[in-house]
Batch of 3 targets.
Target 1
Amino acid sequence: MKSILFTIILAVFVLFGASAQKSDKNRNPKNDSITLKNLNEIVITAVRTNAPLKELPAAISVVTTRQLQALNKTIDAGEILRLVPGVKVDNGTGGSRIHLYIRGQGVLSETGFRGIQVLVDGISMNDPGGFCPDLYDLDWATVKRVEVVKGLAASSYGGSATGGVVNILTQDGGDKPVNSMLYASAGSYGFWKILGQVDGTQKDMNYRVSYSHTQGHGYRIHQSFMGDNFSEKMNWQATDKIKITQLLSYTNYFNQNSEGINLGRYDTVGHTAANTDAIRYNEFHLTRRLTGALIGKFDLCKNSDLLLKGFARFNNYQETSNNGDDFKPFTNLGFSAQYNLHSGKEKLKNHFSIGADFQTKKMTEHEFAVPDGDHIKNNRVDSYWSQETFDLSTLLINQIIKQRSAGIFLIDKLDIANKLYATVNLRYDYVYNELINNIPVAADSLNPNGSRTFDKPTYRIGLAWDLAKSANIYANYGTGFLVPTEDELYNNPDAWGGFNNNIKPSTSQGFELGVRGDIGNMFHYDLTGFYIDTKNEFYRYSVPGRGNNTAFFGNKGASNRYGIETFLGVNPVNNLNIELAYTYSHCTYTSPDSVKGHFIPQCPQHILAAEVSYNFLKHFTVAVNVEYQSKWCIQVDDSIYQQFTENGIKRSSWVNGYKVFSANVNYNWKLGWLKGDIGLYAKNLFDEQYFGFTEPNNGSDYNSFQPAPGREFFVNLRLKF
């Protein structure tokens, strides 16, 4: 019935738009999203060689300014990346805390995501081991474009980018000396957000300063979130040959942790239920982070330039749970340098780059024991924003973790007669981890200290053939490796303390073949097929009786991933846009025999997102969209779950998929010097009950299900002056 309704709405839009159809020569390009995806006009910066999209042998998607301006809540990466094929964003919290995967890479991490390099204005959000804890530093209302590179084409960033790169470019200041923006949004479950921004250009200096506050009660019990974001950006054109960019951001983000629940609790209590420990122990996450960065571009001569980047990041993180109250402050410093040389003539040009990345991180962790749940329950004060804890003097963890990483890379891009473009990437990475345990141990215990070092060269070769505007063909083959994160290392299954010496880096090799193009001003398409073979695939498990250590990680044989990613954008008539992103993926283990042929958890075979939008009466835009995911597997091994019965129901390793419909209407206006827009947004129109995120475990009743929000309504207002 829902599918039929969506089809009827789509047909009405098409018929209504057909009545306003004009000839191609009268079309207004500013109203067409396809024009914004022109392969000749879009210059990609995410692969370290600034070049038009048509010249790059890689599957790359771009979220444009037009799409970003149409956002509603502006707090969730899933809202931004839903029309990017190959990308999956899980959000079981209703706030900004997410899990992000590209082509099935990055799954099974307990927090954050790994294997995906995240850049904000060119500055890495990942630590030396390639782990990105969150995207709290971002206010999506201040972003002007997002570039997503998928697969091993991202190898120029080394071990932190086997899945791909998400390159986020924030807005610069406007042309006038002073511009202002005020944005406000409010809606279901106590949600509201307000943002103020001032920006402009003064002679050779461009600036932007913004601050926002966001909060909400959350869809589930004990799921409140609250965040403050300050962001400042300045571009200074010191001379014709020197440009300096300075960045500063501060984040204060708090979210209650309702945790996942097992299916027994879901069946008996309902989809808003929290884990039984969540309220009793006032479980929450608190992040306070300050990041400063400098970027300098120096034109050395007509054909060569030098790019230097440096950043310092200071982070205070606290997580409280029934296992303890954990404090993880760290300092993260990074530096990179890249030299670019351009040579040759029109029919044969060479673009050569050589560079190095270096990062260091030091984290001091203290975890205090907490009283039993009844003691806390009888003494604590419950509220949406309570940060109350009842720490004991007993230290469960007192350790220092140090990380260093260094990578050198070489990129050579050859342009042949403006039609054929060949690219070669070479890189070598070195990652060092050290643990210092400050808790005394018995003389006969295993050494609680340790160090692990990982290093490996990787490469990628690719070819792009610009056959015609309607057919840009590309192919590449590459290798990559992914190192264990600090959590996966210091959660040691063999001893209390020390590093996990069993886990190894995973290594990958793969290829992709794709074609993309524009047909007139009406049609844009991108079709990519990929195959990835991985050895030493990571997996997650638990060890009974290990107390505060709840998740351990190891290697589970080998796997392969293959699939097809498709994006279609159509403007059949003026002011009507249809966009569709579809991903088919087949992600299975190939060894050992016990799991051979079994699907990798969190990897549905089918993901679809589609949107139809229509602009009418010059100022109104109406849009309807659908998001669909097929079922996925939660367990690495079916035998863990196949004998388990709960509440009289036989459980399986599979999680039901979902189909969610949403709609919004927007009105924009201009009154003299004041411009603005107001929008109404309804998400999950049919109140579908589904799981936004799941986590596996090897205990039959430990599997974690986080229900997603039901029907939601929001209103937003943006003023520019």
Target 2
Amino acid sequence: MTTRYLNGRIFTADPDPANAWAEAFVTDGETIVYVGSAQDAPDTDETVDLGGRLVLPGFTDAHTHLLMTGAALGQVPLTAATSLEQIQEALRSARAADPDASVLRGRGWLFDSVPGGAPTAAMIDAVVPDVPVYLDANDYHSCWVNAAALAELGITRDTPDPLGGRIVRDADGEPTGLLLETAATQYAWAHRDEITSDADRDADVERVIEAYLATGVTGVVDMAFDQFGLAAFERAQERRGGELPIRVAAHWLVTNTGDDEANLAQVARAAELAQQASSPWLRVVGIKLILDGVIDACTAAMRHPYADGTNAEPIWPVEQLHPVVVAADAAGLQIAQHAIGDRASDIALDALEHAVAVNGERARRHRIEHLEYAAPGTAERMARLGVTASMQPVHSDPAIFDNWAQMLGDERVDRAFAWPEYEAAGALLAFSTDAPTAPYESLANMYIASTRASALDRSVPATHPQYALPLASAIGHATRDAAASVGDGDWRGRIAPGFAADVIVLDADPFADGPSSLLETRIVETIVAGRSRYRAPAENR
């Protein structure tokens, strides 16, 4: 079946501005076969009148957490809470709404909404003392729990801190209810995984697919895939006869066990999965390594201390990181390293340079995730090494920026989320959301990228507007470059002949109406592989 799309404003995301716009395009099954003027468009089996609407390539969320996002969409949202009282009221209301629940889960709370940035179990117990409560921080690097949850997890004053994490304790050595980094993953999240059923995970998968398609995302890159996520998406694929309505590329999470043999076994498992038969719908492409934490909790590894004089050690010591990176590089896996602090990004690039020295020169495209603060020269070094800068505009939303700035408290704040540096250096810059650590909506992400203003609270003034990007550049980084970040730049991410027919139709044109209209613009239709996967309700078209 061939289809001709006419009477639209088609942004192709071609890197050459001369080819960035077209009047029409034609698809043949799953593939785009013509892009150009309406007059020259060939005859087809079917013609679609776009009604003057804007068409874009489908977005690729180049860094997300699929199962977690699906689960988060069913949890108590706390990001909008600006005080402890508001957090407590949200928990009280959620408990009252489901009194038979055996556990209460929330997500998205901010450190600067809690007195002194120090949450305690007692603060939750004041409103929900009868069931375990687990509240993931906005950055998902901390988990705040109540006394019942501490008891359920078996955490006492005698429980040791895990490698790369900390159980926060009071002056008497008692756990306060805050679990940092691997303490959250190895206790709270591990327990969650144990008690979550396959049926629950299947529901999370369907929820996140539906949500992403409705926001114009046609491809995603999961950055913490494990056996649960792989099995859940394989089941979703089986339910649909071998395909999915959205393209999933995944990085297998490799955690530092402290044992080199066990660490390398995780790399070998990722390599085995990557070599298995894959499809355009579901594949493992690499590994994910978390080198440090986050600036908001002072757990990101910095060259210089935080405002309070503290600093954080990397989660992966160099002597354990290098063998893993060398092995993954030798296996042809893409290596994605979470590095938020400038010391962590130095360590990441050192490890990649070491892998090149050991394994020899060849084509490779590794990545560094987040780069919230990177020292001058980092972008140029990444460009020389061919390393992708994977960054999230939504993390720079001014409504959640104050605590980040206060933790650093010096001139480093002026270089936060400096996307233009990577453009200027010639590094590939891929945009994403890191959902559920931030909202997953693609157009809100583009609003922040092109304005540095807040999508959460429009009364908050823009932060670092000098780092805002032209809308065309922002969309290119979230479509063309996001697809290229996992090696797909030659067949999807643009509206071009020979590319996958992954396109979206919008109900307004932010190029004409200005970036501020992005927060009101809606997706009319999402097309993946030439088939309509989402249509807005009739009243919203």
Target 3
Amino acid sequence: MLRFRSLFLVLFWVAQVSAAQSSDYSYVIEDDWITLPDGVRLSVTYYKPEAKQAGETFPVLLEMLPYRKDDISKTWAHPYYDYFARQGLALAKVDVRGTGSSEGIAPTREYSDTEITDAIDVIASLAGQSWSNGNVGMWGISWGGFNAIQVALRNPPQLKAIIAAHASDDLYMNDVHYTDGVFGLDEYVLSINHMMGFMQSPDYTIDDNYFANRFDREPWLFNYLRHNQDGEFWREGSLKHQFDKVQVPMFLINGLLDGYRDTAVNSFESLDTPIRAVVGPWPHAWPNSATPGPSWEWREEATQWWKHWLADSHNDNSFNGQNFRFFLRSGNPPGTSLEDVAGTWYDSSWPLPSDEMDNLMLYPNSDGLLTESVAGQSQADVLELNSTIGHELGEWWGELLPDMRSVDAHSLVYDGAPLAEALQLVGKPQVTLRVSTNSEKANWLVRLEDVAPNGEVTAITGASLNGQLRFSSLTPQPLPKGEQVSLEVPLHFTTWTFKAGHRVRLAISNGLFPMAWPSPEPLSSTLTINSEASWLQLPLWEPEITGNTINMPSAVASASLDPQLASFEAVPGVQSRNEVITNKLDDSVSIIRESAVGYRMRNPNHANDPIRIHTLRSTEHKTYKNDPANTEYRARAEYRLLPRTGSENEIHYVTEINLTSDTEVFDLNITRTLSEGDQILRQKNWQETLPRGIH
């Protein structure tokens, strides 16, 4: 059995920082351990400013992730850590227990109780360091934002404020597993289920301890499929259901092209604590480097935020209240490669003042029209489930999207008249549908779109509804076959300007694949039109009344990590692939994605012998138009640990996920394989048949 014989050594080096201003701090980067009450040690990387005067101490910012800070994600964080350290803020980047360089047993789920409890213990440890002033802030994007919010729900005394970017307030209805209550699988499912079983860095020792604590631990997807309904499993970590517990000041950053963009407005409507929120035009990325832009140098304001709450420099009273800023999009054409979108920044409150708002009611009518009034007798439009459409929408309600005409051709579509003047939209559009269906299980996926005079169609926002959750996500009820029911579908928060000459479009389908796992039966549904029972409500804003336009500072250049410490490299013989294959013989569609990236890291044990890991991922979603129950997800991820001496073989760690369904069950099969050269060192298989439940 292979062992790498080197020990984990403390790496200490002085950062060679060229100060942009004379007031900037120099800092050191140091790898160390934080020992928890049960004796488990968590790996931590410190960015420590160097004191300018005797006895100077610093606030500490904590980011805690399972994303392997010392190899797979080593290059990601440095531009942000460098920026804050130069401002006199100390930082601690910690691997979650049982992941990356940390000791312990891998957790059984995201944001486990153990993880949040560990974070509270880490905060106490950081507050007690000799170079700390005793005040800690927690921050991060995505996972780091999620667990910052969940730690804030417990209000540890040393935690004085948080910053959470692109993080959800509802782990069931607004996360990647059951978005809007509809099951789906994206590439993240593969990445995280694979990453959790890899060896501890930087030694990558393969022994019984590794197998028991990581490799042999059940992949998380089984746990999530067992909990396919809303309940305490999801709600214990969801801000939405316990706003009253929050006492910590919160700074929230959301993106209009991100799946978690409702968190800011939901929090504003429910929190009494100091809160700042910025909703910009970004996808799932920090605003200084997001595409599309315009970029925003959020780190400048974040530094002021941290110093206000953590350094006792309460010099900005605006931080003590509530502040909401948003980017009103001017209306952009469809396309996946836009560098910037046009629009205007506004500083306001939330909800927006009532005298600035007006709700426009539109009704789907005959001949595909969307009108401001109902004329004639009610009718019914028929919608047949086509489970193979929708790859253009991606894997969640976010990102830049192409022209929607190919999807709309298989949907119910209702268009308003060309607009005589522009309309500004800010908020959550509301949709109510009066429907009937021939199945107890059905999903509705609703989109708000902009139709340009040249026919191009831009997706603005949308949402899904699992019909069984029409009353409550906690109490599912089967749809009554053949009976009409009303479905309320609140669309996700958005901003948009419909230009004069453009048309408002409402598009409705029963499937969008692979975002939504298809309903199990061939499905026919009806929508009542020419009736006040089905409608679209647009929250229109009139900024010319009191709208306060503002300028947001553009991003400054970021320091990159010394390539001697970490860099990317090509993976030989592998090319990215993104392909949709339609098979007319069996009416199936397959969405195939393949990618690879290589990482090179300085080896703390052997300076001239770098650690090199190549990562490869492939996913295939497949479904059938006439047999939607027969849907498949097949995925494979591989880490190749390249040899560090001429006598060693490559170590290959592989995870394969196969999920299939029929009308009643999901069959999940996951295999992990660890090999050295041609020899299999360990293979572990998990297989379970799980009821589909409400999906």
